[in-house]
Amino acid sequence: MKKPWFERWSTSGWKLADVDDAVDLVTAFVVGFVIEEQERRQAAETDPDRYSIVQREAWRGGGVALVKDAAHLHDEGDQRFERQLGIVLDGLAAHLDG
């Protein structure tokens, strides 16, 4: 069984204040991600155009090719969640271990 975050991170040498900040950050990411996913699903039922890539591209106009290209990269929520949470955790580790 894995140790809880506070115990695992504090016994690895992180200061308790840093562990507390890290837990807050991960929690905020998870909650925010879930809220956004719920909003997208609800909007798909009530307002399908709200997250339409085509409509966003038309609204943005020219000069933002990279932003438009990035909109097409969104994959399924689970894959995106795991990838982005990994980035958050890697960033925390690099910051606190470095």
From TrEMBL:
Residues 15-95 form the Tetracycline repressor TetR C-terminal domain. InterPro entries: Repressor_TetR_C (IPR004111), Tet_transcr_reg_TetR-rel_C_sf (IPR036271). It comes from the Bacteria. This is Tetracycline repressor TetR C-terminal domain-containing protein. Keywords: Transcription, Transcription regulation. The keyword Hydrolase does not apply. GO terms for biological process: negative regulation of DNA-templated transcription.
